[in-house]
Structure formats: C-alpha cells, structure tokens
C-alpha cells in the first residue's frame, strides 16, 4: 500500500521560504559569509553527515517542510508493503558531485554503510536489509514495523546521501576546504537540481555569541546563527541588522537528568526538581520573551500533547520531605548528613544556557536544592561520563527535524538508546516505545505517546523540559529577507542576497 508522506504532522498551516528572496536574480559573485558556534569537525558522511544537508553540500531522501510535513527529496516515491517492508524509488537524473549517478546500486551501498556504522540508524533499524528492486528502486526490509520511516528518512542524523566510492555528496555546494576555523563551499555548476545562485559560502566557527553578532553589525559577516539573548537585546532599533525568525518553534531546551546516582536516582527528587522550576519566569523575564513557556513535552497543537508541566513549590517540598530530605536553617535540605546538592551543566556554544542555569539555581534554592552551575565546552561529551554532573542542559527537541516524536523518544529514553545520556533503564517505557514502532494508525500512535508521557513525565520525570525556542538569525543588509529554517536546512540552490532592494 502507498502512504501519503505529505500528511501534516503538526496542526499548523505556515508556509515560508527556506532562504532569501528573488530566486530569478543573477548568480551572486560575493560569497555568503556565515558565523555559527558549531564547528564541522569532519566530512565523514557516517559520523558527521548531519552537517551536509544543513549547509547545502548534501541532501536527504526525504525533506521536512516549513509547514510541518515531510515530503520526498531525492526520492520520487516511498511505498509501504505490509508492516515491515518499503520500496524507495529515486528521482531520475540525480548525480553525486563525483559525476556518478545516484541509482539503486549506489543507494543500497550508502544505506548499507549507514546500517553498519551509524549508531542512530542502527538503533532505529537494527537488522534491516536493503536489496535492489529495479534501476532506481530498493526494497528496505526491517525486522519489525517501522511506522515512522518517512520521518526517519528526513532526519539529518540518519541517511545522509553520499557516494561510497568517492565520499562526495549530491548537494548544490561542494566543499572546497575545512579546518578548525571555517568551512568553505563553492556552488556546483553541474548541480543536478539546476542553477545555484551563490558562487560560494564561507562558514566560520565562532563560539562567542557576542562576537558573532558584532561580525554582522560591522559588516564582516552576513548571517549570525544562534544569537544569544543578551545580543538580541542590544539590537532593538539597530538599522544595520535584522533579526529573522523561523516559522516553527522546533527548538527545546531540556535538562538530561543523571538517574544513575543520588540524589536524582529517586523519582521523587526528580519530580520535585521539575515542580520547583518556574518556566514562565525563565521564558518571559530571564529571557525577555525571546523564549516560550512549554506546557508539555510536545507542542499543544499536536493531538498527543499532554499539558503536564507546572510549577508548584509547595508540592515540590512535600515530595522532598517524603524522600527524607529535611530543610536546615540555611534553607538547604540534607539527608543522612549529605546536602541536596546537584551540578547543572551549561555549555558555551549556546550562551543562553548559562543565564538560564543561574536562574534555575535560584529557583531550586527555594525548594532546598544546593545547585552549582558549571560551564562545559561540549554538552554531550560532558554527559558521556556517569559522574561530574546531575543536570545537563541541551537543545534537544522532543520532535526530530523530520517532525517525528518516536525517534527522539527512543534515542533519549529507551534503555541503551544512543542519546540516553542519563542512564534511563525502564522496561515499561521501553515496551511502549517498541509498540510505537508498529503504530501505523494515528489514533493508536497518539494513545501510546500519551502513555509514554505519563511514564516519563508524570511518574518518573526522567528529563527536565525547560523552555521552547524559535530559531533566529541576525542578518546584515544584503540578507535582511533571509528566513531561518525551522528544520536546520540553512542553505539551498535558491539562497542568495535580496538584490537592490536590500542595499546590495
């Protein structure tokens, strides 16, 4: 049977351009200059292929849209055959930058490489097999149902498309050089998808958020990604720059909780921590309204969303009392002579995590927590250790950039999931996640997702959902009409300056 891969996954109707205005203008000769905090460390399509689609030197089999759907990209069609088999049919005429055609044999090669070496793919599709089914078609057989496959194929961390023989990709830009400071791209004159507007792009890796914003204000850069709130505050009324906002709030700041050790090995302490955090104050006061207050794990418009996040200091204190933590004269709780002490990790590539962590520190003190704030250079690297942290802040959404709720849940909360950084091991939650893999009917999927939220949030509070974020970019005059991508597809063949109307 065929499936409608364009079925909306978010109950919104927002249409936005991925890049800038005027795709019919002549090719721009001046390179686009971008500053971003995240460095591309490698061109390895298995280990770091997720950068390829974002920066336009690679593409995916399916694509997320700004209206909350997924649609074919390098695929012409995706057809389900029973519960554990799919046919993937490629577009005609797609070529790698090496000149080789993307045909069924090349698709099988790259999918086999991901199945063998990509942890995210292995976790989602363990035991899957790919066979050639025609000149442009392959058959994917899985060990069990994988109802969310369309979204998995639109996820940047899954099947980046590359030529196994040469290591090249299919995107509108070719990589000319990469080092620790910058990525240099050139428009591909032979791009299979047509004319590329930009001759070149320079992506510089600049960890300091203020420095990125100043680079645009001074004319040294055209676009600054991930601007910190402190910088956005200073830009009000500044005619030299524009702050551009994405269509969808796909970003979410969460705290991974280290459940392997005290005090957060006790669900009552985790629930108390969640109840003691005032999300509205963090979003509206600490962050000046640049963030939004979450009411649940998922956006309210989704049919499976549950409003189960609240602030209740009295309830938090009751839970801590039940867990044996008694408040001392200085306000800090102790148990068996040990203080209720936790370490909250912020991380430098996302400067907003530091003031949010400091504000949480003050909020948690009211309940009797003694929270220490630490700043680390890489959030995931710090959380790979079982010691040295209790709450690790990270921008990890509950929806993938393919608008899929199942893969993030499996990756972050299933036992031994590739991003289960806090050490969650819950057989009941695992069973629900496993059932979701075969939930092709929306009503059944929604029921299971609500059950997962009951376990993970109401009963166990495995993660701390802090605030929601809309992606923003600071743009210079030539790119003042650039629209940030909600789904991390920053560049494509149509990206370019606005022309005379933008002062170029």
Automatic annotation (TrEMBL):
Keywords annotated in UniProt: Signal
Extent of the signal sequence: 1-22
Domain named Solute-binding protein family: residues: 70-414
Stored Pfam families: SBP_bac_5
Protein name: Peptide/nickel transport system substrate-binding protein
InterPro entries associated with the record: Peptide/Ni-bd (IPR030678), SBP_5 (IPR039424), SBP_5_dom (IPR000914)
